[in-house]
User: What shape does this take?
Amino acid sequence: MALLKRALPLLGAMALALALGACTASEGGTLTVAGSTTVLPIAEIAAEDFEEESGVHVLVSGLGSSAGIEAVINGTADVATSSRDLTQAEAKEGLSQYAVAHDGIAVIVNDANPVDGISLDELRDIYAGKIENWSEVGGPDLAIQVVNRDEASGTREAFRAIVMRGTPFDRTAAVLPGTGQVRDVVARTPGAIGYISIGFVENRFTSATVKTLDVDGVEPTEANLESSAYPLSRDLYFFTKGPAEGEAKAFIDYVRSSAMDETIRDAGYVPVGKGGEADG
Amino acid sequence: MDDPASAPPNVLEDVRRAQGTGRVPGDLVKPPHLQDISPNSRKAYKRGLKLVDRRTYAKERALEWLFFACAFVAVVAVFLIFAFTIYRAAPVLTEIGLGEFFGLDWAPSEGSYGIVALLLGSLLVTAGSLALGVPLAIGCAVYLVEIASKRVSRVVSTAVDLLAGVPSVIFGFFGLVLLRPLIADLTGGMGFGALTAWLVLAIMIVPTITTLTMDALRSIPMGVREASYSMGATKWQTIYKVVLPAAKLGIVNAVVLGMGRAIGETMAVLMVVGNAPVVPESISSPVSTLTSQIALDMGYSSGLHRAALFGMGVVLFVISASLVGIVRLVSREREERVDSREAEREREKRERLAKATPVELATEGPDLSPSQLAREVEIQENSRKRIKRHLQNGSSAKVSKNVTNATMVAIFKFAGWFATAVLAIIIAFVAWNGLPVMSLDFIFGWPEGVNAEGGIFPTIVSSLYVTVLAMLICAPIAILAAVYLAEYAKQGRRVAFIRYAADTLSSVPSIVMGLFGFALFVEAFGFGLSMLSAALALALMMLPIVMRTTEEAIRAVPRYIRWGAYGLGATKWQVVSRVVLPSAFPRIATGIVLAIGRAVGETAVVLYTMGQAINLPVTPLDSGRPMTIHLYLLANDGINMQAAYGTALLLMLMILAFNLFARYLSSKSARKAGGK
Assistant: This one.
């Protein structure tokens, strides 16, 4: 009995908390943002600052681009964040698209690797498993160790769309679930090749460095990214069901305003400033 | 139906009947004169033995039903998990087809959903880790039980217990950051692959196997060892030829459960295997497993891909449930053969009742049915022959038995200290790298910027929040369920069924529990990615653990205390609530604290039930990111490894604190009991 007596108030408190939870969730003034883990850091910081400025409570979660878009289509989220374009099926659902940042994908190799540049075709053959030695692309006689990203990654999706163009990935490649791991493994392994967002190539937190390759002769710099000269680039988007209105519009405007530029650069992307109109 | 007019059953008759079946009816033997007038039974009430009034009777019956309902939660949970996972996996049958599902190609983006490569990966990783871990764990157990002095044994067994508490994400982190580069240098590859997973998993399964093997060794009566020594056998000869063969079935159980742990492990494997869904070229090239592939793909999968993941969950569930089934079959055999404690008890009772002379008893041996007795004799004959044969060989062998003995004892000693050293290395590694980060700002600060600088306060709150919530849900149900099993239930098919369900529930791989939690709580119940969803899934995970420790605690309460209370006219519920539970409380608390430690360190269950955004949860419907997931994400993204080390250190400290607190509680209650 003693035990039960001790447990009862706790149970009561829990029931109360549950009831409160239900209340808060049904109140107005909240905005639900769901989607890409790539965009998650930006969305989180934006949500925090935006909440302070406007008093609107913003709930952010990241489970991947597809989940976010699905959530907006079926109405469980107000804004979807995505690191990819809509698929054909999704495009029929009447979503409005807002670009929030440009991102470039850098192809990285070990510092000791003498190769400086690569063509898109060679890159595709390496990731398809057709080229297996650095000597085939003008390097030393060293086996290429391919590092790929997991399928949840927007970076992989973009890489697939731009580089692979329908050719399947070599499935014996290591699949690593994070930018940091790709960078770390490439920095340590002489024959490795990988790809990460340009913003993560330089990193003040680790001493391990990696080398970027020019793709089709173009260096991955911010200028080349903005001028679209560098082939491996993509945009990050927010989606709403129909044109954004009210709180959703205010939030998207805030993310695209200059107040967020520094955050976006910190996250490794290039900001776009375009006001609040949908891109298409 | 008994005839109420029949003579009261003869005590001796009763016991003889019990002996005939070779077992004592239940653990809690009521004094025979109480057998017919249990004041709460329907029979007693119908017969007009109005020991209690109608209201009390109704209340007692209602409570019994409530307890039964709680115990039945485990059965319902197992059924729900299985049914719901199968339901979500249905498209595997209808649209993918079993032929393709058991194909070799896993390429969801191209529409191939073959899981055989992943299944082989799981088997490869498990087999290797068993090959390394089993000798280590058994050596460790033998050292602790047979060789080490009490003081040394306490140090090493504390280390083994603490090792059991280290969260899998920390093992994974350790493997990723420390072992992987070492393996990479050794093999010239990237260091991802089965080999790294073997090393990590081998350490992870040691506590499970060691603890269970120790139980098996301890259940061998001292006399068996003494007999061996008296024939001139050395320690090693006794261990190898007598003790280990006698404990064989218990050790098989331990290994099977260790295997279940290895197959179901998710996070640690995910972080070191390299996740290439192919049959690997070598043990140092990337490979993938069922569990790690589910964890990797779950976040973004949809449609058939997601159904295939649930299908993999079903496969994992079936594997782990069959392993539990094997353990139960083996245990039944084992109980018949070596449950010497039960035999001892019966012998004592016989002594008392039959007033036999010590001489007579000595010639009789343990009380067993003729067939069992024959088997027992055969075993003893065999071991006697074995010992003799071995001793003869020993005298003619080139190496003296003392040298062999010294070598083998040294090897066991090494196994014991190796486990301790690994724990020390992991703690030192995490502390060395994490301490420089540690500050009040880190603990109470908010993460800043996109590079996860600043503190980790919201993740600490999320971890504790979800754990407390899970315990509030789990503990009452688990305790009442244990009350039912220990105090109310008649040992029989119903209880065996509930136990089987609880064992199965505790063996469900954490990622499968995560899948189920996502499908039921997040989606079907509409709780969303929230503290509540994660807590419910965690509560199911913890339920069997708290149930088992509570039941053991209740059973450890001496019988005569209950009899005293019954003698004063207490009803069953009064006995349970005022006498049994309070005296079992310290041990129950120990079990709960241990479960809390496990919940705080759990990753795979909460990965897809809680959300991953950094958020300070207020209501149970808020999402958040617990420390374990924070560590996992930081380790993956590796942007700021400092924060990862800091998080790992804090997580480790919290879990060590919970485990040490639990040890303190149990030693305190043991002292108290001893003091009386």
